[in-house]
Prior knowledge:
- The chain has helices spanning 4-12, 15-51, 63-76, 78-97, 100-109, 111-126, 133-140, 144-168, 172-180, 185-222, 228-237, 241-269.
- By secondary structure, it is mostly helical.
- It folds into 2 domains: 4-51, no CATH class; 63-272, Orthogonal Bundle (MetI-like fold).
- α7 (133-140) crosses α8.
- The longest helix is centred in the last third of the chain and has 38 residues, at 185-222.
Amino acid sequence: MSDAIPERAETSQPAGPHLGRAVSYWARYERLIIGLTAVGTFLALWEVVCRAGAIKPIFLSAPSQIGATAVRMFTSGELVEHLRVSGAEFLMGYALALTAIPLGLMTGWYRRLNFALDPFLTALYVIPRVAFLPLIFLWIGLGLWSKVALVFLGAFFPICISTVAGVRTVDPVYIRLARSFQANQRRLFLTIVLPSCVPFILAGLRLGVGRALVGVVVGELFGATAGVGYLISVAGSDFQTDKMFVGVAMLGAFGVLCNEVLVRLERRVEAWRPPAGVGQ
């Protein structure tokens, strides 16, 4: 009898660590697992619908056919060239658009500067970028820099306006507390305002990615000989649905990648932000 009790304890003991590791693994990769499962299910249903002949191939290509076309274009170098051109336009325009962060910080921090610039920022933000297309082509031409300008215009204003909103919504409790300790403007800005604005800045950067990709595609639709937008335009006019979806998939994958990088960056800097609700 006395030997049976320890034996039952020994057999049931190892289940604890295994269960704990499984729970920890699920908690760590839950977002990735659910996301991949949803995408896989969607692609499987898409493949079944296309193979069943419910939709004509000229209107919608199967994922397997799109993947095979992407591999063929990549090995031939055609897709690499389009990605290189669009990537250069995006990176240059988006890098220039990062100047919106210091401008947004100053506009949000200085009240009179906000009064002066707010009408321009609002007006330029709501005007569609396509409206600037004839002027940009007239001023800059049809080369690389016209696409860079469209990317810049697409990303600049979401980043700037989000940054301004971040400064304007800083908890006044922190401001009064810092001033009560005789903090100067520079220290107040660096230790209170800037950390509180980080989520807003990153949200603006994520919005700017989408607007910048729109600028890339729009610029290449109307005046380019290479690029993902040019690929989509030519493939659509030639009824090459699989090649058109390759371009669309490249844009979507790049957008998801940029968003994931910014989300991870946001998690890294979240600890820098003052906790909400202190002093209330």
